[in-house]
Write a structure and sequence with these properties.
The complex is a heterodimer of chains A (402) and B (635).
Chain A (H helix, E strand, L loop, with lengths): L8 H9 L2 H35 L3 E4 L3 E4 L1 H19 L7 H23 L1 E8 L3 E17 L9 E6 L7 E4 L4 E9 L2 E5 L11 E5 L12 E8 L4 E7 L6 E5 L2 E27 L6 E12 L2 E8 L4 E3 L2 E10 L5 E9 L5 H21 L35
Antiparallel strand pairs in A: 1-2, 3-18, 4-5, 4-13, 6-7, 7-10, 8-9, 10-11, 12-13, 13-14, 14-15, 16-17, 17-18
Helix pairs in contact in A: 1-3, 2-3, 3-4, 4-5
Chain B lengths: L1 H16 L11 H5 L1 E4 L2 E4 H13 L3 E2 L2 E2 H10 L1 H4 L3 E4 L3 H6 L9 E3 H4 L3 H12 L8 H20 L15 H6 L10 H5 L2 H13 L17 H20 L20 H5 L6 H18 L3 H19 L5 H13 L1 H21 L6 H26 L7 H22 L4 H17 L19 H34 L4 H37 L7 H19 L7 H27 L6 H37 L1
Antiparallel strand pairs in B: 1-2, 3-4, 5-6
Helix pairs in contact in B: 1-8, 1-9, 3-4, 8-9, 12-13, 15-16, 17-19, 18-19, 18-21, 19-20, 19-21, 20-21, 20-22, 21-22, 22-23, 22-25, 22-26, 23-24, 23-25, 24-25, 25-26
Classes of the chains: A alpha+beta (402), B mainly alpha (635).
């Protein structure tokens, strides 16, 4: 190992960060976290493992002992690799493959950071002949308000993201002549209708809070709102995320519809599902393929295309994947697309290419003996040291048989 | 499970029904080549028979006879097959719950299970109502055995229409009245062609045209014996038509190219309107059944040949004759069994060459390994040609591939370092990994169809192959690590051998790491193409990452002087465990603690392996340290 002599202060600290031993510790910790997080998934599910081990800076073992999360370890590894590139690596031709490989891994870590913080994943369920220009969030909810009647093909909807931190807050929907105060919000709840009281116009509904699911995708949110009308008078509205029908509130502007629904992400295009097909292997229930024919329209340009397994649609920075399929007892088929907007999408491809190229280069140089030190017969590592030499090179005879 | 209850109701009459003619050795070459649509693909009946027998009994032959002979006997001589012990029941508690004495070899005959069939389906039905993850091992096994019983009975009935049955025993007078040649018993097919005459006899009895029984037919008290017999035959025939038609044995391809559903012989026999080709095919089916049961090989062979002609003409593009022929060749060759034997010889030869320094065993060892690789690779190539897809499409095929690459790497190592270590390591890897593959083919057909997301030859050819090359590299490095440790214990003075082993370990580990890393990145790219995300910390992804991290750890720990050559060897040995966890250990996580059968068998095998390695490493550590201590004392 070739670690420079430490110098005082920051200038002395930086080379120390390049220590190969730090790399080893980081890699070992990452190995432990990966193994532990994988086993943890069996009992607690993927989301819980991701949150505890892989997306965290640290977590507590038995609620007491802190242990670094993957974020910390990967950050430390990133700093260690940067420092190595700056202070330890010998930029020689013999070491070129290694340098490229490590640069590729650094780039991959940067790309992972971008993807983790800036990628947006949602989904788009469409029944045949249905059209939509929004995708749905899997975990977050919104309060949507619109004016009735809305018999037209399009309707104007005002929506606000809703969560438990908004309990007690007043949400302004004055364009509809109402304001909504969030009296209560449940991350996960069950819905039930109470017995109709005498004289009441509608059945009263009740939300029963449930323990939030391991994966928030499985939660169904609920909220109780106090609607303040501009013309005076209050009305309590109970909303349940699993309910298709929106609540009705009479206001000075007419009938207002209010719904708690999965957060919508606007898309810069409309998508119409023309047809979806599930093809099975003959005589089995095993799906051979799922295919969706869609029509995409944006800025007055429309085109038809097909989305199927392993063949997503790339358009305007969004990618649409064939995710799942459903058919109701009446035979109406629905296709579900995963929708991803990821600015760092190309990073894994580029870094993967760099890692691959670097390794191939290194391998070929080793194979042809390029860059070996005179007398060592070894090849250079990232730090410029020699790998074990072949002592009997050229002696390809049957020694064991002597 | 409804079918199961039906099976239970039918089991007893079936046992009583069919003749027990001792079938002579029948020429089954034509029969086993007949194509059948099963599991979503067309395959020869030979493959179907092997897969069925494997599923039932975890073996691909029965008492030394090929599976096709067992299947033919089951279909054409059901009563003669009921004592064949082909039902494997892994859990003795299942046998107890059915009131059967558990067998030492865990295998049972239909005759043993017969009295308990109703109970089996009753218990299996109850078990199937329990959530899959909550099922006990006994419940899981009950469902498996009940499914196997359905499969067995389906096969048993595939040709029941052409076998004489006591239900169709007719007295001579009635036989003459309806135009049948006098015989002791008739088959469903015999009666089918005389149903017009039988119908004429029973119609007045059913229509209620005269007498007090109007609306319900003529008063039975007034029926003549011949009329009574005709009515009994008519009802038996109607019962068979209803019940037996649902047994699926898709041996008849669709006539139209755009259709995909195949029909069973029963569908063919029950077809209302037939042209001459159909009538001939039905007659051939009948001849097949009768000639087998009555021991007339030439007649059987000719009937099979004529029926094969009918299927071929009808199948048009649906049957790829070349693939069918290749599959028969593949089945006959048994390439992986052969490769295992050759690897076994190579292990012996190389061990003698290394330990006893015998010159004469070196080249036989090389030849055995090379021949093993050739046969092994041929087997993989045949599977690619038969399935028309990439070499690895399921877990079983990863074992075949890794074993083959391991053996090839052994040959390559031997080329560079002729100390017989390459032969030993390559043959050990090939042999052990092929042995392991045997645990994964008991589901039946191993050239199964692919689910939609995997149905991509491009990604199967890139990601899956590269990651498997990574597995192979790590496994080889692990075997070399073992050899290094053993050499260190036996004779640590021989630096030449130790250095050679270190260099080989280093090289093979680098090979494994490169391919594991590329495979992992390609897996991410495939995930991005299929699901829209490069990485999701999914267990399988984590498994691949763990292999990469382990390799990277070893390659950084060595230059950091945290480990030496011995540490590298120990790390390589532990690397096998990491690979096993990623390769098939991860699959066990999904099934949790309630699994049983072969999955549990894998879990147990994995635990035993980890235990053995722990003992090996601990014992080696003790021996090496004791040696070093003694050497220090001596110095």
């Amino acid at each position: 190992m070739n670690v420079p002599i430490p110098r005082p202060g920051l200038r002395g600290l930086l080379p120390r960060l390049a220590s190969l031993r730090i790399s080893v510790v980081c890699i070992a910790l990452l190995f432990i976290l990966t193994a532990w997080g994988t086993i943890y998934q069996a009992e607690h599910g993927l989301y819980a493992a991701q949150t505890r081990f892989f997306h965290s800076w640290y977590f507590l073992i038995a609620g007491v002992v802190p242990f670094p999360g993957a974020q910390t370890v990967i950050f430390a590894l990133f700093v260690n690799m940067l420092a190595s590139m700056a202070f330890r690596v010998k930029y020689t031709v013999a070491n070129l493959g290694n340098v490229i490989t490590h640069a590729g891994i650094l780039f991959l870590l940067v790309g992972s950071f971008i993807t983790y913080h800036f990628a947006q994943e949602s989904f788009l369920p469409l029944a045949e002949k249905e059209v939509s220009n929004v995708s749905l969030d899997r975990r977050n909810w919104e309060l949507a308000v619109w004016q009735e009647p809305s018999g037209e093909a399009e309707r104007k909807v005002t929506s606000m993201e809703l969560g438990p931190d908004q309990i007690g807050h007043e949400l302004d929907f004055s364009e509809y002549g109402i304001k909504a105060v969030v009296s209560n919000y449940y991350r996960n709840c069950k819905f039930g209708e109470m017995a109709q009281s005498e004289g009441a116009q509608a059945k009263a509904v009740k939300l029963t809070p449930s323990i939030p699911a391991q994966d928030p995708e499985d939660n169904i949110a609920g909220a109780v709102l106090r609607i303040k009308k501009a013309d005076g008078g209050d009305q309590e509205v109970t909303l349940y995320g699993g309910q298709d029908d929106a609540a009705r509130v009479a206001s000075a502007n007419g009938t207002i519809r209010i719904a708690l629904r999965q957060l919508r992400h606007p898309l810069p295009m409309t998508i119409r599902l023309i047809d979806v097909r599930k093809k099975d292997y003959p005589g089995t229930g095993i799906a051979r393929s799922y295919e969706s024919d869609v029509e995409v329209e944006s800025d007055g340009v429309a085109f038809k295309t097909r989305i199927y397994m392993n063949h997503p649609l790339h358009y305007k920075g969004y990618i649409f994947y064939q995710s799942s399929y459903a058919a109701n007892p009446q035979g109406r088929e629905t296709s579900v697309f995963a929708v991803v907007e990821n600015r760092g999408r190309l990073v894994p491809y580029i870094s993967g290419g760099l890692v691959f190229g670097g390794m191939v280069l290194h391998f070929l140089m080793m194979l042809f003996g390029y860059g070996r030190r005179p007398g060592s017969n070894g090849t250079a590592n990232l730090n410029g040291n020699a790998a074990p030499a072949r002592r009997d090179e050229g002696k390809r005879k049957l020694e064991v048989l002597k | 499970m409804k079918l199961g209850i039906f099976v239970a109701a039918l089991a007893a009459p079936i046992l009583a029904a069919f003749t027990n003619a001792a079938a002579a050795d029948m020429p089954l070459d034509g029969f086993k080549a007949l194509p059948i649509m099963d599991g979503g693909r067309v395959k020869p009946l030979d493959t179907y028979a092997r897969a069925t027998l494997l599923q039932l009994s975890s073996k691909s032959s029965y008492h030394g006879k090929p599976a096709i002979a067992w299947l033919a006997k089951l279909m054409f001589d059901p009563k003669g097959s009921v004592d064949d012990k082909v039902f494997r029941i892994n859990n003795p508690e299942v046998a107890y719950s059915l009131g059967i004495e558990p067998q030492p070899d865990s295998r049972y005959a239909f005759a043993q299970l017969g009295p308990a069939i109703s109970k089996l389906f009753e218990l299996a039905e109850a078990a199937s109502r329990v959530d899959e993850k909550q099922r006990t091992p006994v419940e899981t096994e009950l469902i498996r055995v009940a499914n196997n019983m359905n499969l067995y009975v389906t096969n048993m009935n595939a040709f029941s229409f052409c076998l004489p049955s006591p239900e169709f025993k007719v007295d001579t007078a009635t036989a003459r009245a309806i135009g049948l040649e006098p015989r002791a018993e008739y088959s469903y097919l015999d009666l089918r062609s005389h149903m017009g005459a039988i119908g004429l006899m029973v119609r007045p009895l059913m229509a209620g045209e005269v007498g007090p029984g109007a609306g319900h037919g003529r008063d039975p008290a007034t029926w003549t014996p011949a009329e009574q017999e005709a009515m009994r035959l008519f009802q038996a025939f109607a019962g068979w038509s209803e019940q037996y038609r649902q047994y699926s044995f898709p041996l008849v391809p669709p006539g139209e190219a755009r259709e995909e559903m195949w029909q069973s012989p029963w569908d063919l026999v029950s077809r209302p309107n037939m042209d001459s080709a159909y009538r001939a095919a039905v007659a051939d089916l009948g001849t097949m059944g009768r000639s087998y049961a009555e021991g007339r090989p030439d007649e059987f062979k000719q009937a099979v040949s004529r029926f094969a002609g009918f299927v071929s003409a009808r199948g048009q593009g649906a049957i790829k004759a070349r693939a069918n022929g290749l599959e028969l060749f593949y089945n006959a060759l048994e390439p992986f069994y052969l490769a295992k034997i050759l690897y076994g010889f190579a292990i012996l030869a190389s061990l003698i060459a290394i330990m006893a320094m015998r010159r004469w065993t070196y080249w036989p060892g090389v030849l055995c390994l090379a021949a093993g690789v050739a046969v092994h690779a041929t087997g993989i190539g045949l599977r690619v040609a038969i399935g028309g897809r990439a070499p690895i499409t399921n877990l079983f095929e990863t074992f075949l591939f890794v074993a083959c690459v391991g053996a090839m790497l052994g040959l390559a190592l031997e080329y560079y370092n002729r100390k017989a270590f390459g032969i030993l390591v390559g043959s050990i890897t090939g042999f052990l990994v092929l042995m392991l593959s045997g645990r994964y083919d008991t589901d039946g057909d191993t050239i199964g169809v692919l689910v939609a997301v995997l149905n991509s030859n491009f990604w199967l050819s890139t990601h899956v192959i590269t990651i498997s090359l990574g597995y192979a590299g790590f496994c080889m490095a692990g075997v070399l690590g073992h050899l290094f440790i053993i050499q260190k214990i036996v004779n640590d003075k021989n630096r030449e051998k130790l250095d050679a082993l270190t260099r080989m370990t280093y090289g093979v580990l680098a090979f494994g790491l490169i391919f594991a890393l590329i495979g992992t990145v390609l897996g991410g790219v495939w995930a991005d193409q299929s699901w829209g995300r490069f990485w999701g910390w999914d267990p399988k992804e984590n498994g691949a990452l763990m292999i990469v991290l382990w390799g990277v750890l070893l390659f950084h720990a060595k230059p950091a002087k945290l480990i030496g050559d011995l540490g590298m060897a120990v790390g390589s040995v532990l690397g096998i465990i990491v690979v096993m966890m990623a390769w098939f250990g991860i699959n066990l996580l999904g099934v949790g603690l309630h699994s049983y059968g072969f999955t549990s068998g894998v879990a147990t095998a994995l635990s035993v392996y980890v235990g053995i390695e722990t003992v090996f490493l601990a014992g080696s550590f003790y021996l090496i340290k004791r040696k070093e201590f003694r050497q220090a004392l001596a110095a």
